[in-house]
Amino acid sequence: MPSEFALIDRYFKRATSHTTLGVGDDAAIVRPSPGMELVVSTDMLVAGTHFLPDADPENLGWKVLAVNVSDMAAMGAQPKWALLAAALPAATESWIEKFATGFFACADAFGIDVIGGDTTKGPRNFCVTIFGELPAGQALLRSGARPGDEVWVSGTPGRAAQGLAHLQGRAALGEPALAECLAALHRPQPRVALGLALRGLATAAIDVSDGLLADLGHVLAASGVAATLRPAALPAPGFERDCYLAGGDDYELVFTAPAARHEEVLALGQRLSLPLDCIGVIAVGVPGQLTVLDAAGQPVEIARRGYDHFLP
Fold this sequence. Notes:
Blueprint: H1 4-12, E1 36-46, H2 57-75, E2 78-88, H3 93-109, E3 113-121, E4 125-135, E5 150-154, H4 159-167, H5 177-186, H6 192-197, E6 204-207, H7 212-223, E7 226-229, H8 239-246, E8 253-257, H9 262-272, E9 276-283, E10 290-292
Parallel strand pairs: 2-3, 7-10
Antiparallel strand pairs: 1-4, 2-4, 5-8, 5-9, 6-8, 7-9
Helix pairs in contact: 2-3, 4-5, 4-8
């Protein structure tokens, strides 16, 4: 049975490209680029809460890092460094090797140096701390939305929730929808290129982790505004609509931008080959108030807005 340190050396110690001192000492040393601010975030993923106990380890490795990369995208930051703390029930090398393969595939895809962390024995869970950079004063915040701004969303929200429902037996998807939804669930694609391009264009942004309505609600509350949504792609009432509005786990970006820059946002989507849909408008009103209209302009009854760890 390999030791903790042997496992780290074998599977998690890699060469770095923009780090002064990486894995191997009591702490890492990094040097931010001149004129840049550091952006820091952390997320924990726990078996049975964030992923199924029998999740494929390579897909899980990708997702553990990707959900953190998405936070950098939502801030308009370039991800640069990450630390991984992991609790594992056993030192099963075949599982760890596959997990590390997925984790470093994500790191390589986004140019991230893995610079340290910790391992311990326990119920399987993972905590990543990620650092990024952006030019001073150019962060995308939740607090910048203003009345008259348009509300946009990237990609296709709801697919990850549909994939999870299929795995849990709450829905039955056929191909090709099943493959698309499982890919969205297992291998989310952080919208880093979009986040970088939104600097100076978006007035506010957030990633969709807990649900489109729930996460947009954070923007509205922080900005002190309300919103009316009328998504052109809003599914008919039922399972798919609930996934679209409240499913979460998609890691798409929801952002606001001035209406006068509508064509710029459309052009950006074309340049990135990424669907960007205008789904509503920011309004004066009770901070956090959100009205959803259907295709006929009628208010949609909303049973839930998203996921909360401490609410039923």
